[in-house]
Specification:
single chain; alpha+beta; 2 domains; three-stranded antiparallel β-sheet; 8 helices; 7 strands; globular
Length: 193
């Protein structure tokens, strides 16, 4: 996709609204650069973490870093109570919520295997009773299976750090379906070439 197409995509009000909605409270990274030279920006020039609070922030960041030719905006798995300095990122007590996420990478030609692996994880979550808080995002050459970070009770969040909860869930589900995922991976053309 050329840079003009990317700019047009990010100029859509719907896209800006969706990005702002998802990124609110998250530490943001802007990825851009040139072929064979990817660059990730995570901080403002004054050292503050990048963040997006509303749709106009999306446009503002893209304009501010236009020399980088931004192509992607990333949001952290953590939602922070405050995001004013690097110190806020280092404070585990500042993490309000964390999204459990399974990142399934592959080649576009392997899209059926990617979907199959995603389905295995979603099926396992359904067996565990997690259904209404699960969503999947296609990321170009793979998927991200998410559990919405706000599905956990305040009682659970008062006992454990949200990052620990997310890590435990991801590892538990992977342990339960590791063999089935390994079968898909071993049958993948990308691994056999």
């Amino acid at each position: 996709m050329n840079y003009e197409e990317i700019k047009k995509y990010y100029s859509s009000e719907l896209v800006k609204e969706e990005i702002a909605d998802y990124c609110k409270g998250r530490w943001v990274a802007i990825e851009g650069g040139f072929p064979n030279n990817r660059v990730f920006l995570r901080y403002r020039r004054d050292g503050r973490p990048l963040s997006i609070g509303n749709p106009s922030d999306v446009e503002g960041l893209l304009k501010q870093f236009r020399a980088l030719k931004p192509r992607t905006i990333y949001g952290s798995i953590n939602v922070y109570s405050k995001l004013f300095s690097k110190l806020d990122l280092d404070d585990p007590q500042n993490i309000a919520y964390t999204s459990p996420i399974w990142d399934i990478d592959g080649n576009l030609e392997e899209w059926k295997s990617i979907i199959e692996a995603s389905r295995i994880i979603v099926d396992e979550l359904e067996k565990l009773g997690i259904t209404k808080s699960v969503f999947i995002k296609w990321s170009g050459e793979g998927t991200h299976v998410h559990i919405h970070e706000r599905c956990f009770s305040s009682e659970l969040l008062s006992k454990y750090n949200p990052l620990d909860i997310a890590y435990s869930i991801v590892e538990y589900v992977l342990d339960r379906c590791r063999e089935r995922l390994a079968e898909i991976a071993s049958a993948s053309n990308a691994l056999n070439n």
